[in-house]
Each structure stands twice: as structure tokens, then as C-alpha cells.
Amino acid sequence: xxxxxxxxxxxxxxxxxxxxxxxxxxxxxxxxxxxxxxxxxxxxxxxxxxxxxxxxxxxxxxxxxxxxxxxxxxxxxxxxxxxxxxxxxxxxxxxxxxxxxxxxxxxxxxxxxxxxxxxxxxxxxxxxxxxx
Length: 132
What we know:
Layout: H1 3-6, H2 25-45, H3 60-78, H4 84-102
Helix pairs in contact: 3-4
């Protein structure tokens, strides 16, 4: 059993960069499950329940931030011969938490979700809808 199995993440590695709206249904489902499992692990391991709202998946910026952090984490797990990679990953985690506090604060709490709609002047195409 490897570290991915321990937290419920498949061994299917997402590409280094991808757009959620361009994934086929199977990949979208697989990556969504993996990112969600990673976020669950992250919240428990680093005690972030007050920093990451349970509705994070309903906020586009949070999905993108966590996806990037997840891909970086996967990369670190795949490169065991580079010990400094863990330090760099933790520096990125700290930056992410700062951005969440300063820029991506949703106003959500563990008990309440607050929608954050796109500004009125933004017109989103069909492939970007569905994420508030």
C-alpha cells in the first residue's frame, strides 16, 4: 500500500496543467475525487477546518488553488530523491493559505455557504459556467 492508497487517491496522475472544463467526464470525475480526497487529508493533517470551508468545491478560485497544490504534492510524492521538494511544497502551502485569507475569502463558515457570483460585467461562456 502506498501513500496514495492511504488517503484514497488513485495512482492516475493528472497532467501537470489542465483545465477542468476541458476534461472528459471520466477524467473530471477521477480528478475531482482525487482532489477532494487530498483536501480532506490536508484539512485533517494540518488542522485547516477553519481555513478551508467545507464548500470549497463551490468556489472556482478554491478549486483551482487546491488542484495546483494537489498536483505539486503528487509531484513531490513521485520524486523521493529531492528532499528539498517538501520544504518548497510547504512554502507553497503557506502562500496558498495566505491567498485564501487575503484574496479568496468566501465569507463561508463550517456551517454556512455564501455564494460568490461573477461580477455583473463578466459574461461567462458555457464551458466556464457552474462554478460560483
